[in-house]
Amino acid sequence: MPDDDPGEANRKSALAYAAAFGLFASVAGFCGIGWLLDRWLQTSPWLMVVGLIAGAIGGFYQFIRLASKIG
User: Fold this and answer.
1) What pTM does this model have?
2) Per-residue model confidence as pLDDT tens digits over 40-51
3) How many CB atoms lie within 10 A of CB 68?
4) Helix/strand/coil (H, E, C) string of the chain?
């Protein structure tokens, strides 16, 4: 049976957008920090790769945590 409550649909939609934005922001942020550290420390591209991996791990953790609240 579909949800007839528009408030509940808005809440689920907001959680879905927050989960997707959190994933994107985490990956982009950590990748950017890694890129800046690479430029400063002359270690290109290793810290950016580490930042990308760390951002993906953190972003997916946040995504799964928020997505579990939707269902």
Assistant:
1) 0.83
2) 999 999 999 999
3) 10
4) CCCCCHHHHHHHHHHHHHHHHHHHHHHHHHHHHHHHHHHHHCCCCHHHHHHHHHHHHHHHHHHHHHHHHHC
